[in-house]
Design a protein that fits this description.
Its main location: periplasm. The chain is mainly α and 129 residues long. It is built from five helices and two strands, in the order H-E-E-H-H-H-H. It has a two-stranded antiparallel sheet. A hairpin with a 4-residue loop joins strand 1 and strand 2. The longest helix has 17 residues.
Length: 129
């Protein structure tokens, strides 16, 4: 399973760096780098160490950084679907349950696509690229 995530992560990174910014106003300049408009307070108050654990990060933030503010259970409730689409929930899906690493689908500093798009064509209308 780790190799699936690694392969998907590499593919997602390649897509993110090769595509134009399509996330509207959610990916904006945060001074020296791009960042999400809804995380503005992280850039003005706390800087990189809040999520990455160090002032000059060289890798993605760990999921536990995201989970300090975002509850997987609440996200799963917000993105729940009904009927035949029940397991198309990106935060509680048929393949991984609630165990998909946040950065498999979400990028703070660059556009990313959900890992589901590697194989599936259904859409997530509320997805923040």
């Amino acid at each position: 399973m780790k190799s699936l995530f690694s392969c998907s992560a590499v593919m997602a990174m390649l897509l993110a760096f090769s595509s134009a910014v399509m996330a509207g106003d959610t990916l904006v300049s945060q001074g020296k780098m791009m960042g999400r408009s809804y995380h503005q307070q992280l850039y003005t108050k706390h800087q990189c160490a809040t999520c990455h654990g160090v002032d000059k990060p060289v890798s993605r933030a760990a999921d536990n950084s995201c989970l300090k503010c975002h509850s997987v259970d609440k996200l799963a409730q917000k993105t729940a679907r009904k009927g035949d689409e029940q397991w198309q929930n990106p935060h509680n899906n048929l393949h991984y349950g609630k165990d998909v690493p946040c950065t498999e689908c979400h990028g703070e500093h660059a556009v990313k696509q959900p890992i589901c798009k590697d194989c599936h064509t259904f859409k997530f209308s509320k997805f923040k690229e």
